[in-house]
Amino acid sequence: xxxLRRLLGLEDCFEGFEVDPTRVDMQGWNSRHPFFDVAxxxxxxxxxxxxxxxxxxxxxxxxxxxxxxxxxxxxxxxDTWLGSSNHLAISGRRxxxxxxxxxxxxxxxxxxxxxxxxxxxxxxxxxxxxxxxxYALKRLQIKAGVIHIDASHEYGAALSDFRTYWPxxxxxxxxxxxxxxxxxxxxxxLLEFAAEQDRPVFTSMGKALLxxxxxxxxxxxxxxxxxxxxxxxxxEA
Length: 237
Prior knowledge:
It is globular and about 45 Å long. It is α/β, with parallel strands linked by helices. It has helices at 3-8, 34-43, 57-68, 86-89, 106-117, 130-139, 155-165, 184-197; strands at residues 47-51, 74-79, 123-127, 144-149, 169-178, 202-204, 207-211. The mean pLDDT is 92.
């Protein structure tokens, strides 16, 4: 059992799990962004928290980075695996959840991807809503060196995620926010939260870095242009 599983009292969900090759699906969005490498290289985290996991591609990428850098860190991957508002509000998206008898089964795809990639020794899934997970982690006095938030796209929920997970970030830690610039609600929420904390926001290609320490900053270099299709849900329109 990993140290993280033991600390949280979690069973090993990979024990006895058999991969169905038809469920392996390495689909994700912006899962290999350079900011992951930047944050992990600078912080050398013993723990990474990811809120909003989907099929696990960014968790897997971060696990690869930890292994390549010979760092012993682990990743706590938090999600309900029940889908976002778009899977109900946008026609045709429901099928992405692969429901069986009306219940999403994308979690099986996540497990299959993690095992197939060989990183089940570093990735610890936590199937729980973000607020409940954060409350429990605070009570357990858990701190993470890097936190990646890629959960709700709605302004109110995104702002709540930033506020809720910031106390779980180590004093020298880095928060990585996904969907900055491409989702108006997330962008507004992050800027508002950064102003609350009096911290700068460093952005590139749909992600943003927010350092916990007030004196931490980053040198940025522009290497190419990338156009984004702005997205909106009914609640953001």
